[in-house]
Amino acid sequence: MPLFLAAFLVLSALLFDSGPLYSAVFAVQLLLYALAGVGYLIRRSASMPRAMAVPFYFCLVNIASARGIIEAYRGRTYTTWTTPRISNQ
C-alpha cells in the first residue's frame, strides 16, 4: 500500500493541471498529509481531534508497513518472545 500511495501522490501532482477533478484529488491528498503532519506534532497531547488522529494513524500504519517491507528485503528478521507454558505435572 505505501508504494501505491506514493505513486498516487506523484501521479496526482503530475496531473494537477489536467482538470478540476485531478486538482481536487491532489488537494485532498495534500490536506490528508498536512493533517497527519499536525497530528504528528501534537501526538503527545491528551486528546487529539479526530480530524487529525485518523490521518495520522493512516500515515503511521503505512509508514510502518513500508519500513517493515524495506527491512524484510534487507534480510533483517525479528524474533518474538513467547511465554513458556507451565505444564500441570
What count of helical segments does DSSP give? Answer: 3
Mean pLDDT: 89
Low-confidence stretches: none
Reading the helices and strands in chain order gives HHH
Number of strands: 0
Structural class: mainly alpha
The proportion of strand residues reads under 5%
Largest sheet: none
Layout of helices and strands:
Blueprint: H1 2-14, H2 20-41, H3 50-73
Helix pairs in contact: 2-3
Characteristic terms for this protein:
89 residues; mainly alpha
Please describe what this structure looks like:
- With 89 residues, this protein is mainly alpha-helical.
- The chain has one domain (2-73).
- 66% of the residues lie in helices and 0% in strands.
- The protein has helices spanning 2-14, 20-41, 50-73.
- Helix 2 packs across helix 3 (50-73).
- The N and C termini lie far apart (49 Å).
Short characterization:
The protein is flat. With 89 residues, it is mainly alpha-helical.
